[in-house]
C-alpha cells in the first residue's frame, strides 16, 4: 500500500533517486525527498546542486551502517506519506508505536545515534520517549546495562549518592 | 617615539575593560570600549597611517566584538570583527615596513652560513607547491602575516593588498656572496608558486645556459644602475626613492655595498624614473656592455613581473578546495581562514550541544524518581543530571505530562508527605507507586498544612500556629523559610500561594479571621471582617498589611490558582451583605480582591461546594447529598453567563472504602487536611478527571463514557489529602531568582 501511494502521489519529485553510501560501503537507492530528510544528505545535495544529474550523486553517510539505514529509510518514507496527508496525530502515534515496539534495546540505541546524526528530529523524539519509557522504572544496574555504560563511581561514592535520596531507589521493577 | 605612549594607553583601557568584565559588569565594559573606539577613530582620521593606533583600534574592536558575542549579539559582533580585520590588514601593510627593517638588521648581523641555509631551506619547495598551500591554510593568520615565517606567504598577503615590490625587501644585502645565487634562486622558486609554474621551472633548470639569451631577451635599458651611495643605505631607503613607481613595478637588486640595480618593467619607466627622481647618488641606465653585467645573473635583469591579478584568488580557491568549503566572493585568505575556524568551532559546539541535548532529552522524559536514580549510573550522567539546562527542559516538558500528586497524610508521630506520579494513559501501570519525599519540612515542623503548590514549589505552613511558613521544592531538597507573621490567640486562616506570571514573583497571602474581635456580646452581630497580609517570597522581609476585607473565608488553602489569581469560597454569615456564599478572587499582580459570580446551582454551603481548575477554566464542584456531584465550568473567566454544567458524576463508593471502617470524615476536616466527602482533584492530559473520595481513594472519571475507575496505587497511606504538584528540578533559589 505504501509503495503504491508513493509512486502515484509524488511521481515527479520522488522518482529522482539518490544514492546513499553507508559506513560499511553499501549503496542504497532512495527517493530524493527521503534523502532530503537527512540533514547531512540535504547539505550535501545543496552543495552539489549544480550537478545536473542527481542519479550520479552518491551521498556518503560515514556514521550510519547499512543495516540501520535500511530500517530508517522505510520509516522516514512512510512517515513522510503520513504527514503529507491530513491524518490525525493518533495515526502517526500508532505508526510510531508500531515501529518502536519490536525494536531491541541495541537497535534502539543504534537508531537513536543515527537519528541524531541525521537530524531526523521526529524520530529522535519518538526514540527518546521509548528509551525513557524502558528505563524509567528500572534499577540503576539495569540502566547501565541498557545503555552500555561502565560504572565509574567508587562503591563509597555510589553509596553516598544513593543515601542522598533513598526514596528514589525504592520499589523499582524487577530487571 | 610615540609608540610606548600609545601602548601605555592601550593597556590602560584594555585592563580597565577586563577588570569590568571580571567584576561582571559587562555593560560598563562595553560602553568603555565603545567610547575608546570612537576616540581612536577620531585620532585615526587625522593620522590614518599611524600603525600603533590602527592596531589599538583593531584590538578594541575585537574586544568589543567578543563582549557582544558573549552577550549574544552575534550579528553586531561579526560586524565589528570584520572591521577589526580590515584595520589589521591595513595596519599589517604598514607594519611590514617595520618588520622588514628589523629583519634586515638581523640579516646584516647574521653569518653568511645562516643566510645560505635559509636559502637552501627554501629550495625543496619548488616541486611541492600544493602541499605548501595546505600548510599555509593551517597556519595562524598572524603567522601568515609574519615575514619571518615563510617568505612566499608574506608575498601572498602582499598580493592581497596589491603591493607588488616589497617581497624581496626582507632580505638584507648582508654578507652573502651574490654569485652563490642561492637567495635569488630561492626568490625565483618562491615566485614559481604563485606564478606560472612551467615558465619558472624552465628558467630554474636552464638559468645558466640561457644567460646570453636572457640578456637579449630583456635588454638592459630598463635597468638603472644606482652607484656610490652610502654603505649604510638599506633596501627600504632605495625603495622609498622609487615609491612613485611602485605601482608600475620596480625591484632593487644589490650588486655590492654601494651599488644596486633598480629594475623596471620597461625602459620607458626606467627613463622616466631617472628623469623625475632626484637621487642623491649616481644613477645611470644600464648599458648592454656594462661591466656590471658580468657580475649580474641574467635573472636579476628580468623586469619585475606584474603578478597576474588572479593569483591571490587562485590561492584562496586552492585553500578553500583543500578545506572543502565554498569560496566567498570578497574575502581575503585571512578572513577566509578565520571564518573557517569559526565555522568548525560552531559545528563542534553544535554537535556537542546536540549530543547533550539528546541525552538531556531522554532525562527530561523520565519521572523524577528515575531521573534522580540516573545520577548513580555514571559520572557522565551525574553531570548531565546536574546540567543547568535540564531543569528548564524538564519544566517545559512538565506541561505535556500529568502532574504528580503529593499526598499529605498524618502518621502517628507527625505529618508526612508522599508523592505518586500516575501515568494518565495507563494509570494501572508504572509510576503509581507511592514514594516518600525527603522534604526538609519534617525537620522544621511536625504538624503542617499545605498552603499551595505552584510551578514546582510547595508552600507549607505549621498547622497549629501558622508559623513558620516555608516554600520548598520537595524534589530538590531546598527550602526557604519566610518571615514570621503576627500571631493571634484565636485565629482562623485562609492561605494562598501563587505566582504572578508577568513578573514571576511568588506571593503568599494570609487572610486572618480573628475570633477575639467578635467575642463580646456587643460585637457578635457585626459583619465579619478579615485582615489580609501578603508577602512576596524572596523580596519582602515582613508581611505587608493590605487592610481588612468584609468577609470570612473558608479556612485552609486557596482552592484554585488561575490567571494569576487565587480563589476562595467565603463562609456564610447572615449579617454580611450580598449572597451568603461568594467566590472571591485575589489578583496577585494588583493585590486586590474581586468577586466572581456564582453558577446557578441551588443551595450552596462551604461543605458542598469547592473550586478547582479543569480544562484551564475555573470550575465549581457542587456535591449533592447522596446524588454525586455536578461540575460547573466557567468557560470565560469572570463572565458569569459562561458557567455551564458540563459533568454530572453519579454517586460512587470506591472499593477500598467499602471494606474498611474509616475514621470519621469530620475529624479529618478539623485537622485541616480534608475538604469534604468527595472532591475533584484535577484533570489529566487524556481528558479524564481525577476524583478523591473521603480522603482515602483516588478515582478517575472518563467524561466520554462516564465510567468511574478506581486507581490502584501501591502502598497508599490510609487517608490522605492530595495536592496537585508539578515535578521540578529547580532549586527554590533558582525559581525565585534569588541567591545562587
Automatic annotation (TrEMBL), chain A:
GO terms for biological process: jasmonic acid mediated signaling pathway; protein ubiquitination; ubiquitin-dependent protein catabolic process. Pfam families: Skp1, Skp1_POZ. Pathway: Protein modification; protein ubiquitination. Keywords: Ubl conjugation pathway. Residues 122-168 form the SKP1 component dimerisation domain. Residues 1-22 are annotated as: Disordered. This is SKP1-like protein. It comes from Citrus x changshan-huyou. The lineage of its organism: Eukaryota, Viridiplantae, Streptophyta, Embryophyta, Tracheophyta.
UniProtKB/TrEMBL annotation, chain B:
Residues 95-107 have a biased composition (Basic and acidic residues). InterPro entries: F-box-assoc_dom_typ1, F-box-assoc_interact_dom, F-box-like_dom_sf, F-box_dom, Nucleotide-bd_a/b_plait_sf, R3HC1/R3HCL. It holds the Pfam family F-box-like. Residues 95-136 are annotated as: Disordered. Residues 446-646 form the F-box associated beta-propeller type domain. Gene3D superfamilies: 1.20.1280.50, 3.30.70.330. Residues 360-390 form the F-box domain. PANTHER family: C3H1-TYPE DOMAIN-CONTAINING PROTEIN (PTHR21678:SF0), GROWTH INHIBITION AND DIFFERENTIATION RELATED PROTEIN 88 (PTHR21678). This is Uncharacterized protein. It comes from Citrus x changshan-huyou.
Amino acid at each position: 500500500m505504501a509503495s503504491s501511494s508513493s509512486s502515484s502521489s509524488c511521481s515527479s519529485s520522488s522518482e529522482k533517486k539518490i544514492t546513499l553510501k553507508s559506513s560499511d560501503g553499501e549503496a542504497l537507492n532512495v527517493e530524493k525527498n527521503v534523502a532530503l530528510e537527512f540533514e547531512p544528505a540535504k547539505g550535501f545535495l545543496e552543495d552539489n546542486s549544480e550537478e545536473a544529474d542527481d542519479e550520479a550523486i552518491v551521498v556518503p553517510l560515514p556514521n550510519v551502517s547499512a543495516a540501520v539505514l535500511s530500517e530508517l529509510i522505510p520509516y522516514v518514507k512512510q512517515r513522510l506519506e503520513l504527514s503529507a496527508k491530513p491524518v490525525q496525530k493518533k495515526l502517526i502515534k500508532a505508526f510510531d508505536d508500531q515501529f518502536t515496539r519490536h525494536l531491541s534495546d541495541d537497535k534502539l540505541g543504534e537508531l537513536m545515534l543515527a537519528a541524531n546524526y541525521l537530524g531526523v528530529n521526529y524520530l529522535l523524539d519518538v526514540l527518546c520517549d521509548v528509551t525513557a519509557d524502558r528505563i524509567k522504572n528500572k534499577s540503576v544496574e539495569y540502566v547501565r546495562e541498557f545503555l552500555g555504560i561502565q560504572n565509574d563511581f567508587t562503591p563509597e561514592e555510589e553509596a553516598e549518592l544513593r543515601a542522598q535520596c533513598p526514596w528514589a531507589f525504592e520499589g523499582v521493577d524487577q530487571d | 617615539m610615540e609608540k610606548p605612549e600609545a601602548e601605555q594607553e592601550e593597556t590602560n583601557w584594555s585592563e580597565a575593560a577586563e577588570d569590568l568584565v571580571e567584576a561582571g559588569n559587562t555593560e560598563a565594559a562595553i560602553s568603555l570600549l565603545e567610547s575608546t573606539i570612537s576616540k581612536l577613530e577620531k585620532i585615526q582620521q587625522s593620522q590614518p597611517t599611524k600603525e600603533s593606533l590602527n592596531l589599538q583600534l583593531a584590538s578594541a574592536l575585537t574586544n568589543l566584538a567578543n563582549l557582544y558575542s558573549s552577550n549574544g549579539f552575534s550579528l553586531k559582533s561579526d560586524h565589528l570583527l570584520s572591521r577589526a580585520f580590515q584595520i589589521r590588514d591595513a595596519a599589517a601593510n604598514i607594519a611590514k615596513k617595520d618588520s622588514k627593517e628589523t629583519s634586515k638588521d638581523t640579516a646584516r648581523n647574521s653569518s653568511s652560513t645562516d643566510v645560505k641555509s635559509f636559502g637552501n631551506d627554501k629550495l625543496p619547495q619548488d616541486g611541492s607547491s600544493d602541499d605548501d598551500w595546505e600548510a599555509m591554510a593551517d597556519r595562524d593568520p598572524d603567522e601568515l602575516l609574519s615575514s619571518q615565517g615563510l617568505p612566499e606567504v608574506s608575498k601572498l598577503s602582499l598580493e592581497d593588498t596589491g603591493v607588488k615590490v616589497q617581497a624581496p625587501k626582507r632580505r638584507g644585502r648582508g654578507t652573502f656572496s651574490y654569485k652563490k645565487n642561492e637567495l635569488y634562486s630561492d626568490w625565483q622558486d618562491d615566485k614559481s608558486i604563485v606564478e606560472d609554474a612551467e615558465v619558472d621551472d624552465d628558467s630554474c633548470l636552464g638559468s645558466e645556459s640561457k644567460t646570453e639569451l636572457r640578456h637579449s631577451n630583456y635588454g638592459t635599458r630598463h635597468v638603472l644602475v644606482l652607484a656610490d651611495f652610502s654603505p649604510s643605505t638599506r633596501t627600504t631607503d632605495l625603495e622609498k626613492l622609487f615609491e612613485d613607481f611602485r605601482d608600475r613595478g620596480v625591484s632593487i637588486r644589490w650588486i655590492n655595498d654601494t651599488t644596486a640595480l633598480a629594475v623596471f618593467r620597461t625602459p620607458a619607466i626606467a627613463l622616466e624614473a631617472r628623469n623625475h627622481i632626484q637621487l642623491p647618488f649616481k644613477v645611470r641606465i644600464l648599458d648592454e656592455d656594462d661591466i656590471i653585467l658580468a657580475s649580474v645573473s641574467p635573472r636579476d635583469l628580468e623586469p619585475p613581473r606584474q603578478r597576474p591579478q588572479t593569483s591571490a584568488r587562485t590561492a584562496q580557491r586552492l585553500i578553500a578546495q583543500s578545506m572543502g568549503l565554498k569560496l566567498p566572493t570578497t574575502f581575503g585568505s585571512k578572513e577566509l581562514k578565520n571564518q573557517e575556524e569559526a565555522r568548525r568551532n560552531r559545528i563542534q559546539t553544535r554537535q556537542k550541544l546536540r549530543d547533550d541535548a539528546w541525552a538531556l532529552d531522554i532525562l527530561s522524559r523520565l519521572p523524577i524518581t528515575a531521573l534522580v536514580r540516573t545520577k548513580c549510573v555514571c559520572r557522565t550522567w551525574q553531570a548531565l543530571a546536574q546540567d543547568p539546562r535540564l531543569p528548564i527542559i524538564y519544566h517545559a516538558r512538565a506541561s505535556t505530562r500529568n502532574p504528580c500528586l503529593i499526598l499529605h497524610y498524618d502518621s502517628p508521630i507527625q505529618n508526612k508527605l508522599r508523592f505518586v506520579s500516575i501515568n494518565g494513559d495507563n494509570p494501572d501501570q508504572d509510576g503509581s507507586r507511592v514514594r516518600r519525599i525527603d522534604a526538609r519540612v519534617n525537620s522544621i515542623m511536625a504538624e503542617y498544612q499545605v498552603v499551595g503548590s505552584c510551578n514546582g514549589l510547595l508552600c507549607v505552613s505549621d498547622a497549629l500556629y501558622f508559623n513558620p511558613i516555608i516554600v520548598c521544592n520537595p524534589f530538590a531538597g531546598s527550602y526557604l523559610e519566610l518571615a514570621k507573621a503576627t500571631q493571634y490567640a484565636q485565629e482562623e486562616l485562609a492561605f494562598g500561594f501563587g505566582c504572578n506570571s508577568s513578573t514571576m514573583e511568588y506571593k503568599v497571602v494570609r487572610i486572618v479571621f480573628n475570633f477575639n474581635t467578635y467575642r463580646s456580646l456587643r460585637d457578635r452581630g457585626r459583619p465579619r471582617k478579615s485582615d489580609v497580609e501578603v508577602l512576596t517570597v524572596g523580596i519582602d522581609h515582613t508581611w505587608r498589611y493590605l487592610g481588612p476585607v468584609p468577609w470570612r473565608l473558608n479556612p485552609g488553602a486557596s482552592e484554585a490558582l488561575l490567571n494569576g489569581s487565587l480563589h476562595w469560597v467565603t463562609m456564610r454569615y447572615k449579617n454580611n451583605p450580598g449572597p451568603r456564599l461568594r467566590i472571591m478572587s485575589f489578583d496577585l499582580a494588583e493585590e486586590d480582591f474581586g468577586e466572581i459570580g456564582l453558577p446557578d446551582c441551588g443551595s450552596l454551603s462551604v461543605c458542598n461546594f469547592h473550586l478547582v481548575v479543569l480544562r484551564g477554566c475555573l470550575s465549581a464542584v457542587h456535591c449533592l447529598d447522596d446524588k454525586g456531584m455536578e461540575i460547573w465550568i466557567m468557560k470565560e473567566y469572570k463572565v458569569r453567563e459562561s458557567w455551564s454544567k458540563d459533568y454530572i458524576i453519579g454517586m460512587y463508593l470506591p472499593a477500598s472504602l467499602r471494606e474498611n471502617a474509616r475514621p470519621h470524615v469530620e475529624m479529618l476536616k478539623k485537622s485541616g487536611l480534608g475538604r469534604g466527602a468527595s472532591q475533584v482533584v484535577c484533570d489529566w492530559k487524556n481528558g479524564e478527571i481525577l476524583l478523591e473520595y473521603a480522603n482515602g481513594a483516588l478515582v478517575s472519571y472518563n467524561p466520554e463514557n462516564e465510567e468511574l475507575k478506581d486507581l490502584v496505587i501501591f502502598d497508599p497511606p490510609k487517608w490522605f489529602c492530595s495536592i496537585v504538584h508539578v515535578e521540578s528540578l529547580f532549586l527554590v533559589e533558582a525559581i525565585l531568582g534569588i541567591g545562587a
